[in-house]
Specification:
This protein is an alpha+beta fold and 279 residues long. It is 60% helix and 9% strand. It is elongated and about 75 Å long. Pfam families: CAT_RBD, PRD. InterPro entries: BglG_antiterminators (IPR050661), CAT_RNA-bd_dom (IPR004341), CAT_RNA-bd_dom_sf (IPR036650), PRD (IPR011608), PRD_sf (IPR036634). This is Beta-glucoside operon transcriptional antiterminator.
């Protein structure tokens, strides 16, 4: 059960659960409520858990500024995303995405267009998140009678990507940029057309995405574990390994971090598959 601490409006109350303050959102949830009254959690649409005092103020400002319909739209998008992506999203998305949707509509109505420089990367490297976001844009267009472009879907996808990280520490913009840099370097180095619909390409993209995630979360493979594979790859597939070394040099120069021989070897495995299946 939740205990009412303050009624903010008919749809929002500040509540307490086991010593933690929460923002509780639900149609009519605040109507005729009194301080210290108990609320059944089954009557609640969504619970927000503030991290600290500054977070509390931020949430209260959002609720005061943004109409409830935007929170409801976010709830609909998150429900769709969790179903399609088969994952639980971080609760913070209810704040960040709601704020974004409100701002996106405001920008549209004022004729302000902000280009997404990583639209192509998001669309191609995160197709599931992008597909959900296309539907989110359709929800927006139908609800507010506007014509937001598909490029806005990439902006929404950023929030879905970030919300899948357990600690929410990996920034989607930086992630997409690194993925794009690695993939483009490999494509350029192979110098032949790659079938981007092939299973080998999809496996390569998946490997790079997980590699970048580990890069940013400090979970890269250790040097000593891959020495034997590294030697074998140089013996069997030197061309693929040369490209792997180019990626290693690129990351060292751009991010001031050297990846291990084991990481290079596994990149080489996927690069070799691409080289053998390119046309």
């Amino acid at each position: 059960m939740l205990t009412v601490k303050k009624v903010l409006n008919s749809s929002v109350v500040l509540a307490d659960k086991e010593g933690s303050e929460m923002i509780v959102l639900g149609k009519g949830i605040g109507f005729s409520r009194k301080k210290e009254e108990l609320i059944d959690e089954n009557d609640v649409d969504k619970i927000f858990i503030p991290m600290n005092e500054s977070k509390n103020e931020y949430i209260l400002e959002l609720i005061d500024e943004i109409p409830l319909e935007f929170f409801e739209l976010t709830k609909r998008i998150v429900a769709l995303a969790e179903k399609k992506l088969n994952t639980k999203l971080n609760n913070n998305i209810f704040l960040t995405l709601t704020d974004h949707l409100h701002f996106a509509l405001d920008r549209y109505r004022n004729g302000i267009n902000i280009a997404n420089r990583l639209y192509w990367e998001i669309k191609n490297y995160y197709p599931k998140e992008y597909a959900v976001s296309i539907q989110a844009v359709e929800f927006m267009n139908q609800r507010f009678n506007v014509s937001l472009s598909q490029e806005e879907a990439a902006n929404i996808a950023f929030h879905l990507i970030n919300a899948q990280s357990e600690d929410n520490s990996t920034d989607s913009l930086a992630t997409a940029k690194m993925i794009g840099g690695i993939v483009n370097m490999v494509k350029y180095s192979i110098q032949t057309k790659i079938d981007e619909d092939s299973v080998h390409y999809l496996r390569f993209i998946t490997h790079v995405k997980y590699f970048v995630e580990r890069f940013y979360t400090g979970k890269l493979m250790d040097e000593e574990d891959g020495s034997e594979l590294y030697k074998q790859m140089w013996t069997l597939y030197p061309s693929a390994m040369n490209i792997g070394i180019k990626v290693q040099d690129y990351l060292s120069k751009m991010y001031n971090k050297t990846i291990s021989e084991e990481e290079v070897a596994y990149l080489g495995v996927h690069i070799n598959r691409l080289m053998n299946k390119s046309t």
